[in-house]
From TrEMBL:
Domain Glyoxalase-like stretches: 9-118
SUPFAM superfamilies given in the database record: Glyoxalase/Bleomycin resistance protein/Dihydroxybiphenyl dioxygenase
PANTHER family registered for this protein in UniProt: CONSERVED PROTEIN, HYPOTHETICAL FUSION PROTEIN
Entry-linked Gene3D superfamilies: 2,3-Dihydroxybiphenyl 1,2-Dioxygenase, domain 1
Source species: Amycolatopsis antarctica
Name by which UniProt lists this protein: Glyoxalase
Signal peptide: none
Pfam families the record matches: Glyoxalase_6
């Protein structure tokens, strides 16, 4: 039976990506299937796999068709998490696709992979994010 697994992010610096995503989402590097080009990250509470990190030579896409949405419940929480993620190494990319009054903030991880921090109290903003 076919099952949906977990998202995989291509990265150019695996140790840096492990450090960022484990701190950003309270994940742990399980060592499961670990190699020089792969890491599997699990939820810290043991509830299952959350994210795969794969060494990639291709550059991150500026406007990828698939991306991660990280969810928060309030605008204050969104502002706090955006600040925390920037402290961990994320950055705010130049983003030209915001709709009026967006419920999301676009960030890029240290490898340039864009993702959104979505404020569910204001969702949906009515437009595509990344």
């Amino acid at each position: 039976m076919l099952r949906l697994g977990f998202p995989v992010i291509g990265v150019t610096d695996l140790p840096r990506a492990v450090a960022f995503w484990t701190a950003a989402l309270n994940l742990v590097d399980t060592g499961e299937w670990a190699s020089a080009s792969w890491r599997t990250l699990r939820h810290a509470d043991g509830s299952g796999r959350a994210l795969g990190l794969m060494l990639s030579r291709s550059p991150a896409q500026t406007h990828p068709r698939i991306h991660l949405d990280l969810l928060v419940d309030t605008t204050a929480e969104q502002e706090s998490e955006v600040s925390r993620l920037i402290t961990l190494g994320a950055r705010k990319p130049d983003w030209d696709s915001y709709p009026p009054a967006p419920d999301f903030v676009v960030l890029a991880d240290p490898d340039g992979n864009v993702f959104c921090v979505v404020d569910l109290s204001r969702a949906p903003s009515g437009g595509p994010a990344a």
